[in-house]
Amino acid sequence: MLPSPLYVSAEYRLLVAGYKLRLCFITLGHKGTGIFKEYEMTEILIGTPDRIKKTANAIKKLRPAYSKILDFYEKIFTAQEKAAAKTEIKPAQLADDIISIKAKEKFPLFSLSEFSIDVNSSRKLFKKICKIINKSENHMSSAAEVIFAANENKKIDFNELYAALLHDDNASFGNIAAKLKTDRDALAFITYNSIKPSLSMFAESASKYLDKDDPWEKGYCPVCGNAPVISTFESDGKRFLTCCFCWHKWTVTRLFCPFCENKESKSLHYLFSEDEKEYRIDVCDRCNKYIKNVDTRIISRFVYPPLEQIATLHLDIMAKEKGFESGVPLELQV
Ligand SMILES: [Zn+2]
Ligand SMILES: [Zn+2]
Fold first, then answer.
1. In angstroms, what is the span from residue 15 Cα to ligand 1's centroid?
2. Residue 45: phi, psi to the nearest 5?
């Protein structure tokens, strides 16, 4: 039931579907991997509203087909960053014996229901997101209007709503949506996005329990156990995965499928286009899944992973056309 990190309407899908690239297949570990030159390092910084806007504008100039969808998500991400500055959570806490068991067994540190949420700041953001959706006039607009009105009339119990989402309690979440007479996907989108600042902050506080000298090397998030939404190459050619739920980032080896932990070069490939050297789609023959990868070393602008995820939808469409499946839920409505 957990919401798709990205909910893409037919309208947005059509906008980017025409954006085609000439892709070629490259097998990992073979000659093709030499294409990346070393460039000046680009550090991934903590997102700020101004940087998000600047980055979104730079992408819109490069790929105008993304203007409408980026206008929308830029507002959502900016609102989240602004809310983050006013969000306070109870920092993650774990007993020493639990930490060592989890590290030994490779269990994620926390279950989602243990994440602490700033309900007050989240509900303000919830209201803001409803307004953004409504003004954007997209497929969720009418649902957002109903949800906004329900909130104004004090019909939403936020503790109950957030608990249903974090406990992955399908039935309760469905009941809440039915009671509010609204679309559950739109409600899930708004709910998840309103707690995202708390989730990232909690994950950040939890990461102090991870052993820096013992690389995680797993395909699921060491903090919450969810799958990665995007992969990045950073300074020194190090590869990182970013969690689709709490947005924690961890390092893994380059030759590795996060979804089935395949490390065999002959069944790992990537799709690459000369026209967009900063991106590639890593695919695995064993599990048939793919993950998009951003080489931050050859991007001079600020890299904000949620924005990169949106601005590369054409790669998701292409991977799908080639028969590969997204490693995380991806709602590409047709
Ligand atoms: Zn996570
Ligand atoms: Zn795989």
1. 30
2. -100, 165
Structure token digits, residue 315: 């790669």
Q: Where do runs of H (alpha helix) occur along 137-224?
A: 141-152, 158-166, 170-179, 184-206
Per-residue pLDDT tens over the stretch 159-172: 999 999 999 899 99
The token pair that represents 258 in the structure block:
């996060």
Q: How far is CA 82 from CA 89, 91, 122, 125, 231, in A?
A: 15, 20, 12, 9, 25
Distance in Å, CA 97 to ligand 2 centroid: 33
Closest ligand to C-alpha of residue 264 is 2
Position with higher pLDDT, 229 vs 137: 229
pLDDT value at residue 189: 93
Q: How far is the CA of 171 from the centre of ligand 2 (A)?
A: 31
Tell whether the model's pLDDT for residue 44 goes beyond 50. no
3-state DSSP call for residue 205? Answer: helix
Centre of ligand 1 to C-alpha 225, Å, is 6
- Point out the ligand nearest to the CA of residue 28: 2
Q: How many CB atoms are located within 10 Å of the residue 316 CB?
A: 21
CA of 109 to the centre of ligand 1 (A): 9
